[in-house]
Amino acid sequence: MTAPILHVRLDGEGRLIDGDPAFTEINGAAGGATGRALASPALATVVRLAWRLGTLISREVTFADGDRDIDAWARVQPDKDELRLTLSQIRVRPALRPVGAAGDILPVGDWQWETDHAGRITFLSAGAGVAEGTVLGRPLQQLIHGLADVPKAAAFHDRDAALTTSGAAVAVSAIPRLDREGRFAGYRGVARRTDAATSSAAGLTEVFTTRLDRALRGPLGQIIANADSINAQADGPVSEDYAGYAADIANAGRHLMSLIDDLVDLEAIERPDFEIAVEPIDLADLARRAAGLFAVRAADAEVVLERPAEGTSLMARGEFRRTLQIAVNMIGNAIRYAPRGSAVTVSVAGDAAYSWFSVTDSGKGIAPEDQALVFDKFGRVDPGEPGGNGLGLYIARNLARAMGGDLTLESAAGKGARFTLTLLA
Amino acid sequence: MPVRSLDAADHGARKAMLLLNGAESRGVFPPDAARLDDETRADVGELIVAFVSNIVGALCERMAMSPIDAEAVAMRVARAGMLRDADLVAEVIDRARQSRIAARLPLIARTGEASFLVRLSDCPDTQVAAAAAALLQAESRRRAGLAGTELPAEIHHRLLWWVAAAVHEMTAQPGMDSVIAEATLAVLGTYDEGESVEARASRLAAAIDTRPAELGEVLVAALGDTRLALFIAVLARATGTRFDDIRHAVLDPAGDRLWLLLRAQGVARSVVAEIGVTLAAADRRRDLHGLADAIDTAFAVSSDAAQIAVATLRLPRDFRRARHALQAGA
User: I want to staple A231 with a disulfide (CB 3.0 to 4.6 A). Which of A247, A344, B242, B253 is the partner?
Assistant: First the structure.
């Protein structure tokens, strides 16, 4: 069957008045005739419904023609005392289904978008790197350019284009959205960054770490949660030995999880366009919060944790979350190396230009020749020592520098260590 | 605990089913939920996990902690009885159905014109334009999973404390009490229910302030643009009724109240039929063939009688609930 659209006229009782020859032939072959109800029960039902409701009914129908099945888009419009039936997108099975139906599959992309039939953006997922408020409701060209020659209403795949704001190269694919009458009503599309893999080929790529993050974090979270529930004997008693093993599994899982966090951070800070939102923060408050997070661990390690007095305040410029991350890293390290019964001191100080956050321990200290090493990527003074992965201080220093500050160390072997985070006041 | 496949494709649906089945087997899922079809059950479970995940993320970020497995938190709070909160569950069920139906609404395109909400965002009336742009953004963010829970404030608060308690338990550090409480209060402080899709749709409906003669046209345009929240908000505005009461009427597959509401507003029969057909195309629970009878029934009463029939919907909900309870107890 090749006819693109078939027209049929019916009376108020749903009886055939006339129609295109191709239709009357199919209807006749199925036992229908002029002046009688349509032979196909599926079509007759649609016609009856449109008449009773007095409104347009439009849906996909399947009816038989001899030993073939025909899929079509049926549209029945009441018109005074008559009904007009239009059949479009006619396909004989097992041919492809009409565009927009289940046969069209959109590839996986980094982010998704959608437009209406006027080409205006109606949806944007995360990942485009564009504030959705600036492009929603606007023409697609304000988001992606280079798609002007795409034929309207046809699906397209992996077209090279670019983000309008940043110029970043993307490969764009889309399938048409159809309205209830099967007409083009916009696109549903995905975009995939194509320059990410080449720009940072030397180090970890963003795509790599994003996938690593997704691929590992979920399963690892499961392992930790399940091991924790076994350890807590939440679902019933287990032997103490096994509960202990479960705790070991959970701890190993947490260690791996922190490594993933670090790798994701590492990728971020090594990107040339890495930026941190700098805002006024209260460094004294942040120091107390960070120390609060270690209250239990300090007690377990029998270390006294001294923190800035309540009520003190010291303003600095940095991003709250990132500064807290640095502080947590510094305090965590200090507690790890502090001898039992000793104190770790968390203090803040400042002048007109700078604010400082220091963590001092009385552990074994770091010899001057090793001091540069602790800030190196994967740098560790004693690689055999448990805990840590050699990334924490490297990331912390880079974060500090990205906020306009620095992270420094004063220490001598056997005399403890003092790490100081300097931020602009 | 059974070993679960980590196959990403159906991981979401499966975890939702696990959550609900787990809750149900312990008798902590409300009896109403037993009537949910599988698809809605999966959606409801997904949504609860998403809400919990959103809150866990906010809390962990506040405390500069590595993310905790939100699914485990959801399981924990469900097991402890969070899903006995009838208001929460009713809201989640309605939200799940609202999204599912909105996603399936057939588009009605008007040649040469932008879609309805985009046209409103271009409107010369700056109030309408700003409200439409705000809704466009909120709907996009919700669909992209970028929005917060957008639950009514009191329900959000209860959920937040449940999650905080579970996070506290899972971090297994008694000294964390005040840290978590402080973080939770901080997260609570940033919550604004006025930013939800529903609130923004209601503000847009107020800005449009549809005249009775245009009501049918606006309702069909909103549905045809798959903006179900706007459809509900416009009808709520026209009838002087709360958004969630109208939403309930719209999500009810029998639809009787909806046809009566439309009848009471003097919406033409053909428009009511078009709305019915469009909703039936998006909601497989609806009986398209029974629709004509249902609409006939609604139009068998006069517009005035229909107004009286739906007038109770305008009364405060707590008053209606209390009256209902008295009648049930009498």
Answer: A247
DSSP state, A36? S
Nearest CA in chain A to B175: A296
**How far, in whole angstroms, is CA A343 from its chain's centroid?**
43
Residue of B nearest to A133 (CA): B137
For residue B148, what are its two tokens? Answer: 């917060």
Strands of the sheet containing A68-79, edge to edge, are: A16-19, A5-11, A82-92, A68-79, A57-65
Is the CB of B107 less than 8 angstroms away from the CB of A177?
yes
* pTM for the model: 0.63
How many beta-carbon contacts under 8 Å exist across A and B?
A: 160
Number of helices (H) and strands (E), helices first, in chain B?
17, 0
Kind of pairing, strands A343-350 and A304-306?
parallel
Q: Is the pLDDT of residue B136 over 90?
A: yes
Distance from CA of B77 to the nearest CA of A (A): 13
Of B108, B115, B132, the CB nearest to A120: B115
Confidence of residue B330 (pLDDT cuts 50, 70, 90): low
| CB contact burial A319-350 (16+ within 10 A = b; e otherwise) | bbebbbbbbbbbbbbbbbbbeeebebbbbbeb
At residue A282, what are phi and psi to the nearest 5 degrees?
-95, 105
Closest CA to A55 of B107, B275, B300, B109: B275
Q: Do B270 and A55 touch (CB under 8 A)?
A: yes
CA distance A295 to chain B (A): 6
Considering CB atoms only, which of A124, A186, A328 is closest to B144? Answer: A124
Distance CA A72, CA A92 (A): 9
Distance from CA of A6 to the nearest CA of B (A): 21
Q: ipTM of the assembly?
A: 0.83
A23 closest CA partner among A59, A63, A54: A63
Chain B hits for A133, CB-CB cut-off 8 Å, are: 133, 137
Share of chain B above pLDDT 90, in %: 46
Which residues touch A309 (CB under 8 Å, ≥6 apart)? none
**Which of A387-391, B257-261, B324-328 reaches the highest mean pLDDT?**
B257-261
Predicted pLDDT at A260: 76
Nearest CA in chain B to A54: B270
Contacts of A15 (CB under 8 A, 6+ apart): A35, A36, A37
Query: In chain A, which residues have pLDDT < 70?
Result: 1-3, 66-67, 93-105, 195-215, 235, 379-389
To the nearest whole Å, the CA of A146 is away from the closest chain B CA by: 21
Mean pLDDT to the nearest integer, B46-57: 90
Q: Are A53 and B292 in contact (CB < 8 Å)?
A: yes
Q: Which of B138, B263, B274 is nearest to B204 (CA)?
A: B138
Residues A78, B292: contact at Cβ < 8 Å?
Answer: no
| Res B213: pLDDT | 93
Cβ–Cβ of B109/A321 closer than 8 Å? no
